[in-house]
Amino acid sequence: MSSRKRFDEDDDGRVIAPMDVDGMPWHNPLASDSGENGEEGDTGSAGEREPIKLTRAESRAYAWGALKAALAVAAVFALVFLLFILFCTEVWFA
Q1: 62: domain range?
Q2: Domain presence at residue 87
Q3: I need a surface site. Which of 39, 43, 73, 85 has the fewest CB within 10 A?
Q4: For residue 88, is it within any domain?
Q5: Residue 8 lies in a domain
Q6: What is the dihedral of CA 62, 63, 65, 68, to 10 degrees?
Q7: 6 in a domain, yes or no?
């Protein structure tokens, strides 16, 4: 492999479509063009953080909350389906 950098005469260094998208982990509007993220107190990236340890009670509360949310969504769908069936039998096909 060659260690020389290839010169492309069509490439003048301008950015046509920047790929720095809001919400991506590497996006930082305060970062300089040198590639540094600008945060001096940062001890590591998001992939190096340890997971949060939940107690048994917190884990049960989290699961119960998720179950209640899922049941609420299922109840709304069931209610809409029931109302549609009632509409079809009483109004539309009557």
Answers
A1: 54-92
A2: yes
A3: 43
A4: yes
A5: no
A6: 180
A7: no
CA distance 17 to 27: 15
Tens-digit pLDDT profile for residues 36-90: 444 444 555 555 788 889 999 999 999 999 999 999 999 999 999 999 999 999 9
d(CA 34, CA 29): 13
Radius of gyration of the chain (CA): 28
Using CB atoms within 10 A of its CB, is residue 31 exposed (0-12), middle (13-18) or buried (19+)?
middle
The 3-class secondary structure across the chain, one letter per residue, is: CCCCCCCCCCCCCCCCCCCCCCCCCCCCCCCCCCCCCCCCCCCCCHHHCCCCCCCHHHHHHHHHHHHHHHHHHHHHHHHHHHHHHHHHHHHHCC
Domain count, the chain: 1
